[in-house]
Specification:
Elements (H helix, E strand, L loop, with lengths): L8 H6 L2 E8 L3 H8 L17 E4 L2 E6 L3 E11 L3 E8 L10 E9 L5 E8 L8 H29 L8
Antiparallel strand pairs: 1-7, 2-3, 3-4, 4-5, 5-6, 6-7
Protein name: SRPBCC family protein
Organism: Yinghuangia aomiensis
InterPro entries: START-like_dom_sf
């Protein structure tokens, strides 16, 4: 018996997405500078200030030094609140293959700072066999925890220090 047989259709539908969020001490504009960049989350747990990023028409190509190239198409940019990208190709999945949608929201918090939310959806469309797409989802599920922590570190380290008011 394979692992996906243990999941009901309802459970598989819930597993089609990953939703995560993190609070960041930064302005919406500063967080926007990061999330508006396609593939900023292709890294080794620390955001690269100067990524290997190039464009082929409307496709952004991010090259990771050991993992290879990742391809993204910008779906929507609504500065400074929302950005969406289609993750259209990885070293493991070519561009014509099905893809996931990665969406980011920046919400201001009372008292300062923002909450950065991410939703990646469409995993069930990656393969007919649930075991195959659940495996890819599993890596991304843990990956978003790492990447949101990296975003927090990157934004908070590079944010200007607040000035004291007289």
């Amino acid at each position: 018996m394979n692992d996906d047989a243990a999941h009901t259709d309802e459970q598989l539908a819930e597993l089609d997405t990953i939703a995560r969020q993190i609070d960041i001490d930064g302005t919406p504009e500063r967080v926007w500078e990061l999330i508006a960049r396609p593939g900023w989350y292709v890294n080794d747990g620390a955001v690269d200030a100067e990524p290997d990023l190039r464009y082929e028409g409307d496709v952004a190509v991010v090259r990771h030094p050991t993992l290879g190239e990742f391809r993204f198409r910008t779906v929507e940019l609504d500065k400074p609140r929302y950005a969406a990208f289609r993750w259209i190709g990885t070293p493991y999945r070519g561009e014509p293959a099905p893809s996931t949608l990665v969406e980011f929201w920046i919400d201001e918090r009372d008292g300062g700072g923002v909450t950065l939310r991410v939703l990646e959806s469409g995993f069930s469309g990656l393969a007919d066999d649930p075991a195959a797409w659940l495996k890819e989802r599993e890596g991304n599920d843990q990956g978003w925890l790492i990447e949101l922590a990296a975003a927090k570190t990157f934004v908070e380290k590079s944010a200007p220090a607040p000035t004291a008011q007289p």
